[in-house]
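Example record

One chain of 616 residues, shown exactly as stored in the release files.
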Amino acid sequence: MRRAPESVAIAQMPLPAATDGRPAVPAPSDGLGTIRKLLPYVWQWRWRVLLALACLVAAKLANVGVPLVLKALVDALDLKPGDPRALLVVPVSLILAYGALRVSVTLFTELREFLFYPVAARVARRVALQTFEHLLALSLRFHLERQTGGVSRDIERGSRAIHSLLNYFIYNILPTLVEISLVIALLATKFDAWFAGITLTALVGYIAYTVSVTEWRTHFRRAMNEQDSKANTRAVDALINYETVKYFNNERFEEGRYDENLYRLERASVKSQTSLSVLNLGQSLIIAAAVTLLVWRATLGVVDGRLTLGDLVLVNALMIQLYIPLNFLGVIYREIKQSTVDMEKMFALLGQHREIADAPDARPLIVREGTLRFEGVSFSYNPDRPILHDVSFEVPAGKTVAVVGASGAGKSTLARLLYRFYDVNGGRISIDGQDIRTVTQASLRASIGIVPQDTVLFNDTVEYNIAYGRPGADRAAVEGAAKAAHIHAFIASTPQGYDTMVGERGLKLSGGEKQRVAIARTLLKNPPILIFDEATSALDSANERAIQAELRSAAQGKTALVIAHRLSTIVDAHEIVVLEQGRVIERGSHPVLLARGGRYASMWQLQQARADEQAH
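Predicted structure tokens for this chain:
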């Protein structure tokens, strides 16, 4: 069976602390802010980074040494025609030194990459994992309001940008700054101040121009990202809801919505590319002017006899070496700015407040008997629309209590509150006397199993989806749960058996098959508290009766909360709670409620009449 990889050391490494137990990193407003946010991650690999920086400096020293050896080689060979030494002077040592320096540049550059590349990859992985963990820790409200396609694209771009940003700094920015410093120092010591002055002035002008134009271009990149995320979100929504699109013959409508964002993305990308041409042209003019001035002064020096031909070669070689990284520096600066833009939304996700968080002194839930109580519970998703009003009832340990009522009465909300997807506005929910807000969410959810009304499966095998109830379960345990849910025979009859892929959200399975997989998954988890939220709603009568027997068997000795629409499935419940508009209006056993002749009795009569009509 294919399983998700177990947690590795990287996931267990300490992360920077935040008020809610996770790093609450605000969206950076500039490149420096982004670097500051990444430093704690890089710091854990500081010795490897320092060694990489040492290799960086060594490579640049060797690189600047190449023109110096080349100058000495030219001067050594600068002999007049007819000089008897012309055939004897072969500067073997200089030639060997030239070759050694060339090899050293490559050697130290590759050592730097060998040392630092794993650091950049590890940091990008950690931040992406941290963002994913934080998203899973956010409340259900956040995920209901967020479009998944856009979030996944934000994480993808953000993690890629972190990797790129670190690589740009260690492979391009720092090497270029080191080389610029060495070249200016060399020009200032070996030649007159004009050489260093021209170089420094060109450098300052180049950086100022690049920064100002790049800042102007940044909003084009941000617009591109926005339209890219929107286009991706619309495409994902349409593909996930493929059947709905087909039901209403809305292919052209979805194509039009998608193309609308693609058109805006196209316009933003054209503007971005046009502004890039403006930036490239200005950078080239600045560099060309500086190189021309330096070569001109060196030529005058040779003519006046103040400089040798080797000096001219040295200046030209230094300018070529400086020109290449300087020109690339502009590209890298643009990429860094674009990377920070790409990272903004990822850091914004990390900065999202956790609506539901463990209390600072939260302890693991201890389930001794499993008594579940709702005590004066009031709740609303939005302040202007209350859902539950002072709801109180108890599910005794080892008993089954059913909650029934019309759609919108608040039945499924009870399950969400019990799982702490939301916190109650008033009252409390307790398990064995422990308020669920005072225990850790992980221990709470480990103690509860649910078969939801709308079952969504992972796009993986049947075995993976059943084993998801208890990761690491072997094939025998998975098959046992499948047999208990009356789905083993169906799985065994398929060509791939338990290796059958269920498709996106389980769309390759029927509604009843998906529901039975969900039941098997919960049975495999084997928690002390069970929730059946319309667990048999997608089954036909024959399968419903068969599975009801298994559900009753699975609930033996466990505390079970059954949210039901079909009243025939809960006639054996210890107690039935009737909700209407978020209030408990009746409670009692099936015979007691029928004898009372109230709301439950009328619901029962109506459903029995429908059943009789269908039977005939």
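Notes: The radius of gyration is 35 Å.
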